[in-house]
C-alpha cells in the first residue's frame, strides 16, 4: 500500500511539474484536471505514510489522525474532482447541439474548486465534531495497516465517504451514457466540425472520471459485499488488493494525462536538446 501510494505521489508530482512547465494549467477545462491531480497527490501522501506503522506495534497519536484526515480528504476530493470533469465533458459535448448548456468557464471553475476542496474539507472536519470521548474518529483500521475513520463510526463512514463516492460513480455512469448517446447521434450531424470537436473533447478529458470509476470497483464491490453479508469475513489479501488498486488512481491519472497531452514526447524532446547542447 505504501509503495503504491509513493508511486502515485511521484507520478502526480511529475505531472504537476510538467503541467506548470508546459503551461497546461492555464487552459480552461484542463485546469480541472490539474485540480484532480492535486487531489490525487493528497490521497497518495496519506496512503504512502502507512510505512510508519510497519515499525510500530501500536498506531496512535497525531500522526494517525493526520493520515486518517488526509485519506478522507483525498479520497472524497478526488471523487468530487472526477464528477466535476464528468460534468464539464457532458456540458461541452451537449453544448454543440444545445447551446443553453454552454458553461461560463470562470464561474464553473470557481464552483468546482469550492465543491472539490471545500466540500471535501467539510466532510473531513465533521469527523472531529462527531468524535466521542476516548473514541478517536480517525484511528487504526484494516488490521492496523493504516489510519482512517474508526470502526466505531460505521454510519459516519457511510455518510461522509462511501455514499458520496457511490453517488458519484452512478452519476458518472449516467453522464457518460448520455455523452455516448449524443456522440453516436452526432455522427449524422450536418456539421462535421461539431463531430470533430466532440471527439477532441472526449479524447482529451473524458478518460479521467473513467479511471476513478474503474479503480473504485474492487473496493466498492468489497464494501457492498460486506454490507450484504455482515457475518462473513473477507480475506485480508483481497482488502489490501482493493485498496492498492484504489490508491493507483493518481498513477493512472498521471499516465493518462501524460499520454493525452503528449507530455512524454515533449519531455523526451527537451532532454534530447539538453543532451545535444551538452555534447557540443
UniProtKB/TrEMBL annotation:
Transmembrane portions of the chain: 32-53, 73-95, 107-129, 162-184, 205-225, 237-259
UniProt topology in membrane: Multi-pass membrane protein
PROSITE patterns in UniProt: G_PROTEIN_RECEP_F1_2 (PS50262)
Taxonomic superkingdom: Eukaryota
UniProt-annotated location(s): Membrane
UniProt domain G-protein coupled receptors family 1 profile: residue ranges: 11-257
InterPro entries, alphabetized: GCR1-cAMP_receptor, GPCR_Rhodpsn_7TM
Keyword Transmembrane helix carried by entry: yes
UniProtKB keywords: Membrane, Transmembrane, Transmembrane helix
One GO MF term attached to the UniProt entry: G protein-coupled receptor activity
GO CC annotation, single: plasma membrane
Gene Ontology BP annotations: adenylate cyclase-activating G protein-coupled receptor signaling pathway
Family: Belongs to the G-protein coupled receptor 5 family.
Protein name: G-protein coupled receptors family 1 profile domain-containing protein
Amino acid at each position: 500500500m505504501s509503495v503504491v501510494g509513493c508511486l502515485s505521489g511521484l507520478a502526480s508530482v511529475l505531472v504537476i511539474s510538467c503541467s506548470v512547465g508546459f503551461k497546461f494549467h492555464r487552459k480552461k477545462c484542463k485546469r480541472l484536471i490539474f485540480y484532480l491531480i492535486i487531489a490525487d497527490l493528497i490521497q497518495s501522501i496519506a496512503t504512502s505514510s502507512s510505512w510508519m506503522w510497519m515499525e510500530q506495534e501500536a498506531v496512535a497519536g497525531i500522526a494517525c489522525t493526520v493520515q486518517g484526515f488526509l485519506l478522507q480528504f483525498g479520497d472524497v476530493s478526488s471523487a468530487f474532482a472526477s464528477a466535476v470533469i464528468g460534468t464539464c465533458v457532458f456540458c461541452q459535448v451537449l453544448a454543440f447541439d444545445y447551446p443553453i448548456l454552454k458553461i461560463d468557464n470562470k464561474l464553473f471553475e470557481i464552483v468546482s474548486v469550492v465543491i472539490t476542496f471545500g466540500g471535501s474539507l467539510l466532510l473531513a472536519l465533521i469527523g472531529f465534531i462527531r468524535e466521542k470521548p476516548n473514541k478517536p474518529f480517525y484511528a487504526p483500521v484494516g488490521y492496523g495497516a493504516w489510519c482512517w475513520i474508526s470502526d466505531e463510526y460505521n454510519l459516519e463512514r457511510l455518510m461522509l465517504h462511501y455514499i458520496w463516492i457511490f453517488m458519484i460513480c452512478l452519476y458518472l455512469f449516467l453522464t457518460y451514457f448520455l455523452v455516448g448517446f449524443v456522440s453516436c447521434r452526432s455522427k449524422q450531424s450536418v456539421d462535421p466540425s461539431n463531430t470533430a470537436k466532440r471527439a477532441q473533447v472526449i479524447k482529451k478529458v473524458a478518460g479521467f472520471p473513467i479511471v476513478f470509476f474503474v479503480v473504485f470497483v474492487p473496493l466498492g464491490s468489497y464494501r457492498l459485499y460486506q454490507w450484504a453479508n455482515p457475518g462473513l469475513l473477507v480475506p485480508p489479501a483481497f482488502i489490501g488488493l482493493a485498496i492498492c488498486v484504489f490508491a493507483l488512481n493518481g498513477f493512472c491519472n498521471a499516465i493518462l494525462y501524460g499520454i493525452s497531452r503528449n507530455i512524454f514526447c515533449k519531455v523526451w524532446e527537451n532532454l534530447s536538446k539538453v543532451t545535444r547542447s551538452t555534447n557540443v
